[in-house]
């Protein structure tokens, strides 16, 4: 099933600092699968990629700069995990599923995790990227982490120990995007909460009034306004989760 995650678009804030665009388009709220997309990391091994070697293709309509941004984005995973993204110049090996980075006028998103069902595991796993998304390797990496099986940081089972949500500043139909999930269905791989995760919503995500945060950090039990999320690239804890998910220690 196609998960219409309409992704993260970086824009400049009033003070010149880079922020995520408001997340109205991050998840299709009317999608019946929307709730499961907010979990932190997959438990099911069937939805992890079966090999540490992942093939990828770049659509021909990307500019040379955009194509290089994709290559630079995936190089981080090659250098800092045991995964190996290998660009295809011809046909994919028989029976292989590959990641296909495609240009979209407005959308930026992908399915979550490996889908073993269609075509018996063969064919493309599409990543739709708008020109704004293609301009920032950190956003390409955010979508690639979705491909690998990561969800959003602020929906971890232990979220309420780290942030408080101001539901009064969020339209009611978007409240489900701020629900913490159960430990019985999701896992954090025992990685500490990470405000610097590239998978974390910004502090004013879905805000009715973007000048006011929808989430505040808890410091000694007190809510404190601080920046959350970023588009620079995966944090060390993001990469640590990937290494745990794909058992990188066992490959040494």
TrEMBL record:
According to its UniProt record, the EC number is 3.4.24.-
- Domain Peptidase M12A positions: 40-249
**Species:** Drosophila virilis (Fruit fly)
- Lineage, broadest ranks: Eukaryota, Metazoa, Ecdysozoa, Arthropoda, Hexapoda
Give the annotated active site: 143
Which cofactor(s) does the record list? Zn(2+)
Q: Recorded GO terms, molecular function?
A: metalloendopeptidase activity; zinc ion binding
Name by which UniProt lists this protein? Metalloendopeptidase
What InterPro entries does its record include?
Answer: Astacin-like_dom (IPR034035), MetalloPept_cat_dom_sf (IPR024079), Peptidase_M12A (IPR001506), Peptidase_Metallo (IPR006026)
Write the signal peptide boundaries: 1-16
Give me the gene this protein comes from: Dvir\GJ24686
Q: Which GO terms describe its biological process?
A: proteolysis
Co-factor binding comment = Binds 1 zinc ion per subunit.
Listed transmembrane segments:
none
Q: Which UniProt keywords apply?
A: Hydrolase, Metal-binding, Metalloprotease, Protease, Signal, Zinc
Q: Which SUPFAM superfamilies match?
A: Metalloproteases ('zincins'), catalytic domain (SSF55486)
- Major enzyme class: hydrolase
Coiled-coil ranges per UniProt: none
Domain of life where this protein originates:
Eukaryota
Q: Which residues bind Zn(2+)?
A: 142, 146, 152
